Amino acid sequence: MNKRNKLFLGIWIAALPFLLSGCWDNVELNKTSLITGAAFEPGSNGKIRLTIETMIADQLEGNKDTVPSVLQSAEGNTLSEILIRFNESMDRTLLISHVGVIIIDERLAKQGLLHLLDPMQRTRFIREDILILISKDVPASHLLKVLYPRGTLTSSKITSQVKSYRISYGGIPESRLFDISEALLSEGRELALGAISLKGSFKDANTLQSIKSVTPKASIVIAGTGVFSEDRLLGFLSLEDSRMLSLARNQVKGTTISIPNHDNTAIRLYHLHASLHAEMEKGELVMRMNLEGDGTVGSVDESIRLTSIGGYEQLERLGAEYLEKQMSATIKGVQRRFGVDIFGFGEQMYRKQNAQFMSISGNWNERFARTPVKVKAKIKLYRSELKTNHIRNEGIGP
Amino acid sequence: MNEIDHALPNDSYSSTIQSLGHLRAHLKLVFGNTDDLAVTAVRVGEQKGLLCYLETMTNVPFMMDNIVKPLSHFSVNDPNGSADALLEEMNEKYYGGLSGTYIRDLKEFTQKLAVGQAGLAVEGASFTLMLDVKQLDVRSVAEPTTQTVVRGPKDGFTESADTNMSLIRRRLVNEKLRFEKYTVGNQSQTSVYLAYIDGALDVELLRRIRARLQTSLTSSVLDSGNIEELLRPRELSLFPTVYNSERPDAVCAAIMEAKVAIIVNGSPFVLVVPAVMNDFFKSPEDHYQWFAFGTLTRVLRYLAFFFSLFVPSLYVAVTTFHAELVPTVLLISILAQREGIPFPAVIEILLMEITFEILREAGTRMPRVVGPAISIVGALVLGEAAVQAGIVSNINVIVVALTAISGFVAPIFTFGANVRLLRFGFIFLAAVLGFYGIILGSAFLLIHLVRLHSYGVSYLSPFIPFRIRAQKDGILIFQTPLPNDEGGGNGSHE
């Protein structure tokens, strides 16, 4: 075979992969639609009812006369099966990879999450960091239908809302797909997921009319935390309790507390850190929690004088006392109402006192529920923003 | 040449000069009826003579003053001397500065005439006197048009090899600098000069370049591009292995790095071998500036190279195969723009890329007067209107524009041009196989680059093989440490 023939053959062999196999998984972007949000509910015919939110792309180009998304529901026995049936009512190939938020109905969560999780964890197209939230008091699909005046997708509104809320207040635990897997696999810590709910009337919240007003007819609100035992939902924690839960799990970036019995006195906290301790002392379980944090003065009343160190120390003590009281109340509430360790005392014990934990791991939650937790808090105030004393204490004027 | 040899009746015609009539006949035969050949009858002493020259290659007024005028008041010392002695006397007495040579061979005679010498023949002499009166109009040294710098020397090579050699010689005041002459091209007889510093150079490198020039079968050399073609490696190479520059400072820097510069008469582009990939990312200006800024621009050039090679193919791969890789917000924005576009992403990209290539070609070739028309048509009509009409998407225009600009960052145009061609290959690979195709193509490209050598130097050096000392002028530029001048030393000051 001469050189030319060899070259020719080489080119043919090189071209074969293209001619024979090319383009088989090619999907043009403008022939697809993105699933941006999903809601799982118990079905009336099949086991699960799945509602998906798909984006209408050109709406985002500035055309405000159409809705930003289209919602469709389908029922079936398994998630994988339902997902491929949406083209019964929709036009384009669906891209599952950009789901931003999945809302699981309260009723479904009470039956357990495991059968929903497997298909999500198995596929490579779903990201580990998608938000998984529980709908409280409303059907999950209703939440996806609530429009928001900015014209964005409901799902991206929720994602952004949760992120911002975590930075400002801290009242929602980390609830990504990854966190669920982690909680289910860890010893001595139960699952807790963020919950959202609906404020206002759902009726006509899903039409453009509802967002033509400055006060939308309905809006999605963050509603605290869903507490799980294994994969089953037990109930919900309030926002205040959720904040304490997040604090105990070191998930709060910053938050502001109001000091009780002092008019208009508040501290903005940051650099918060909780350390949990659990061990057996003389056959008895002992649990402690130490909270530490830095802070700035948010506002003070006339009784606290910030020109002296004493004023700061007083404020630090008041803040610490409040934190201790709140945290104790939250822990007691969880112990009484749910009896599961969502804080992670057991996880700490599993790590540090493994032998001790293993001896009681079988009934850890019961032991947790009947053992009081000692909470100690320490706050260090560094700044008081632009002012020191309250304006009345400046000593100027008659 | 061969035709003329055949035309000469070998048996009755001698190849040496017989008589003036014979010379006339020979010139008529060789040069035909060309208008610029001047054959003037003169008197040399008492003898009849002929002055032959090409008007287009010689300085005629100079010749009148320095050749013809001496003839008029020439008196013969020895009237009985032979014609040969007469010519020798003339040469020694009057034409000392004109580097006169004696030629017996007629073929050589005509060749010398062709390069701009004047021939003086005397009846009865057995040879002719060739005098160097060459003068050509050359473009004056001007600023280089292709490799501009903000700071640095502003002179550029011209089409005249003499000027170019002078530009190099005055920068490298080094007695070891050699200019070696070769004549390449059967028809054009172009002078090609090798410039190098003797002693510093690898002898093998010189031997190989000489061999290439001596054995070339080229008929004409009109630009150094023809010589570059002679110097390329034997196997197929997708990247240039010969560096070219219009800048004397860049070429001098290369010569000092023990490389060989090749100056081709008639081309302002001087070639340098060996050339490795990193050379094409260097601009002389890198070293004229603060080293950190030089580093920044060089890093930018490498970045632009990768942009130019991969951005369109990445766009195609991501939008047709791997939507899950794009951050959601970006994907939504791309999706919104792709909405309603009638073409698949590949076609869309190819459409704009080809359009851009046409625009670029048109911009290079068209008469300067119609220049603004191209920018209006190109930028406004094709860019703006195509998007408005919904034929291509905005993001596509951004991708093509970014790629196009990146393609021109390479300081040496030929390198950027090759990359532009490869880019199309990558677009096809991405369209068919997605990221897998891009990785596959990159792997082949890398294998090719690793195998490629320019005169024994690995094309990816100093990165592969890695030489730590050479890294100071690799992607990063390091400052050369200064000699210690604090105290001590030779100088003393009180």
From TrEMBL, chain A:
Membrane topology, as annotated: Lipid-anchor
GO BP field: spore germination
Domain Spore germination GerAC-like C-terminal: 224-384
Superkingdom assignment: Bacteria
InterPro entries: GerAC_N, Spore_GerAC-like, Spore_GerAC-like_C, Spore_GerAC_C_sf
Protein family per UniProt: Belongs to the GerABKC lipoprotein family.
Name of the featured protein: Spore germination protein KC
Protein's organism: Paenibacillus endophyticus
UniProtKB/TrEMBL annotation, chain B:
Keywords: Membrane, Transmembrane, Transmembrane helix
InterPro entries (UniProt xref): Spore_Ger, UPF0353/GerABKA_families
Coiled-coil region: none
Keyword presence, Repeat: no
Pfam family for this entry, one: GerA
Keyword Transmembrane helix: yes
GO cellular component: membrane
GO biological process, one term: spore germination
Membrane-spanning residues: 302-321, 371-391, 397-419, 426-450
Family in the record: Belongs to the GerABKA family.
Name by which UniProt lists this protein: Spore germination protein KA
Organism: Paenibacillus endophyticus
